[in-house]
Amino acid sequence: MGIYERDYYRRSLPKAGFGHFSAWSVTTWLIVINVAVFFADGILHRADAPSTFDPETFDSRVSMTQWEIALMGPLERWGYLSIDKALRHGQVWRFITFQFLHASSWHLIVNMLGLYFFGPIVEAQFGARRYLGFYLSCGLAGAVTFVVLALTRVLNTDAATPLVGASAGIFGLLVAAAMIAPDVQLFYYLIPVTIRMVAIFGMLMAAYSVFAFNQFNAGGEAAHLGGGVLGFLLIKNQHWLNPFVSPRREMAAVGAARRRRRNRGYQKDWSKDFNR
């Protein structure tokens, strides 16, 4: 069955669906915000760099984590997540702000492509408000997973290690999209694969990186794992997202669904008359 024949697609806004760019969708605005923050941080960093970081005078004995933080733009320094900043210094806003920051242009491009492809499927399933709650909650789950695994020494990292990127929320979208439309095909290096295959492979690689390999980007993979797990749980328990919708809107949606079911029950199957 093609994506345009699926029930979730027909329930979406006009012309919405897999990889569709709608001017007023939450997915579009999330992409715009992420890109705008990245470029604004780059502009501010270029103006701020001479006063905050000088490679010639920087102490070469400091850790790689300190180097990484010193090379950040001002928005990224203000918003990245780490155990030291978020817990020890009480800067809890970082559990949200890190989701809108990216370490490089390639990091941004990969994440925005994931948001562009998988976001519309999940947004059509939940509606704007619950979708936004879903996305931010999966990102938050990724941050919590990173913190918990670091504190329990599952991750080989220190308290100052920074975490940035939208990929925890996007892994939640990937897993959710794989459950809503598992057989929709993507092309990975010209090889056709389904969303379900991508989700399974991505989650297995994240688990391997965290629990077996625990080296390059293990913190990021821990966030992927947490976002994906919560995405799965929210698809299985969609009522958990009801607090993101006002009771009046929820009642209106329930009433509209009941009317649609009642109207479908009254419709006559005219095909029998024409097929005689």
CATH homology superfamily: Rhomboid-like
Multimerization status:
single chain
End-to-end Cα distance:
29 Å
Q: How many E strands?
A: 2
- Please identify, by name, the CATH architecture: Up-down Bundle
Unreliable stretches (pLDDT < 50, length at least 5) are 1-16, 266-276
| Proportion of residues in extended strands | under 5%
Query: Which strand order spans the largest sheet, edge to edge or round the barrel?
Result: 1-2
Shape: globular
Q: Order of SSEs, N→C?
A: HHHHHHHHHEEHHHH
Query: What top-tier CATH class fits best?
Result: Mainly Alpha
On the 0 to 100 scale, the average pLDDT is 81
Would you tell me which CATH topology applies? Answer: Rhomboid-like fold
Specify Rg, calculated over alpha carbons.
22 Å
The main β sheet shows up as: 2 strands, antiparallel
Short description:
The protein starts with 6 loop residues before the first helix and ends with a helix.
List keywords for this structure.
single chain; about 280 residues; mainly alpha; Rhomboid-like fold; two-stranded antiparallel sheet; 13 helices; 2 strands; globular; disordered C terminus
Question: Could you walk me through the main structural features you see in this protein, from its secondary elements to its overall organization?
Answer:
This protein is mainly α and about 280 residues long. The protein has a single domain (about 5-55, about 65-250), classed as Rhomboid-like fold (Up-down Bundle). About 65% of the residues lie in helices and about 5% in strands. It has 13 helices and 2 strands. It has helices spanning about 5-10, 25-50, 65-70, 75-80, 85-90, 95, 105-125, 130-150, 165-180, 195-215, 220-235, 245-265, 270-275; strands at about 185-190, 190-195. The chain has a two-stranded antiparallel ribbon. Helix 10 (about 195-215) crosses helix 11. The longest helix has 27 residues, at about 25-50. The radius of gyration is 22 Å and the shape is globular. The two termini are about 30 Å apart. Mean pLDDT is about 80; it is low at about 1-15 and about 265-275.
